[in-house]
Amino acid sequence: MVAAVVVAVSCPALAQRAAPSQQQQTVTPAGPQSVSALAERLLPAVVNISTTQKAQRRGQGRVPRPRVPEGSPFEQYFEEFFGDGDRQPRIPGPGSSLGSGFIIDAEEGIIVTNNHVIADADEIVINFHDGSKRTAELVGVDTKTDLAVLKVDPSGKKLVAVPFGDSDQMKIGDWVLAIGNPFGFGGSVSIGIVSAQNRQIGSGPYDDYIQTDAAINRGNSGGPLFNMKGEVIGINTAIVSPSGGSIGIGFAIPSNLAQHVAGQLREFGETRRGWLGVRIQSVTDEIAESLGLERAAGALISGIEKGGPADGGALAAGDVILRFNGKEIRDVRHLSRVVADSPAGEEVTVEILRDGQPMTVTVVLGQLEESEAKTSDSSDDQSGDTEEQLTSVTVLGMEIREINDETRAEFGLSEDVTGVVIAKVEAGSSAAEQGITVGDVIAEVDQQSVSSPGEALDLINDLKNQGRRNAYLLIVSPNGDTRFVNVRIR
């Protein structure tokens, strides 16, 4: 019989495996252990928004139903709520839950939400976290950023407000918390991270979205996206989804943009954006090389608006705007946002590159809204001279029509919706597979805005000629939700 012998061996490697180092013992957890305290503090500031409006039928497509496991307790509920594929969609009627919002001023009763949440409403009702309700009045809306400011009478009620944070301080990977009213269930909390920044999804001229994987669904629109300090750093607005449900790609308006717009709506009841009065285009690598720039950045002036702020000679076609009021300009969209955020009437400094030489000039900004009103009046005067355009085309398995008074009434489209409306969808087509239905609106093709069926057809034909296999479409659903879809061309 051999006796077992235990030998004590001094081995640094074994010792390290046996006992974690001091550094390993103090490693910070990868994510928050719990957000329960934060959620409890923030939930009272988030509200559900419902409206009273005339019920109307918005086309003949069906509302996509959430996918639930067969036999689920919710299956019958969803069947009753969304109907089946042969039914007409149930358009929200009086008192229907539409979206979310949040209180930014408890003393004044000020609430921020998305414009598409309250568009065309005859009456707006705010449902608070404690179950109480109050009617709200509309302070102002901005269709370009899809924002709206509401006001309720705060007397006799203790409201809870949340502050705006600095969205520019957020980094990819930072934790965020979304609170809203998905599918009308009431205050719900989801958590995720910042997936990307400065996203352009083609919803307007000032696209600059925060992308997040925090679950955002129908009804979350207008609700806040918080940082871990409980500050609003975004307003949940749109998702990319073939079904209408969250697939982890949601977009929020950055708080720095929203706070500026909300401030103007509160003060003036409208936006008063700065206007430079120049036509601009991107600085490509080829242009940058020809101008002696180290990299493609800034915005190239292609023309000067007659009678605009820059018409005095300070700026000229061919100038490259490198900085605006001290801010380095990344690209064309960045310049548009920075100018719009500047007050009308303010004198600004513009650093440019002209004939290879850097220069600094000053310009007094005009007001964008005033210039747009003049342009609209001019267009109305000349409308009789335009050639007749195509009013309907069939492409990619869809019949698309122009949006006019007749189609707005037929499909229940609000006045601020632009693009082309889908009148028919072929069964089994790629468009049908992507969840596109009658009454949806194509706002963009390949990130280019369309306003007529002819424009959409030309862009899709261009994609065919380029050998592209898919058309990248921005779809606006009848309830105002936006999403991107890829529709097969061949």
From TrEMBL:
Enzyme Commission number: 3.4.21.107
Record-annotated PDZ domain positions: 265-356, 400-452
Signal peptide positions on this chain: 1-15
Region feature Disordered, mapped onto this chain: 51-70, 369-389
Keywords: Hydrolase, Periplasm, Protease, Repeat, Serine protease, Signal, Stress response
Family the entry assigns: Belongs to the peptidase S1C family.
Annotated protein name in UniProt: Probable periplasmic serine endoprotease DegP-like
Source organism per UniProt: Chelativorans composti
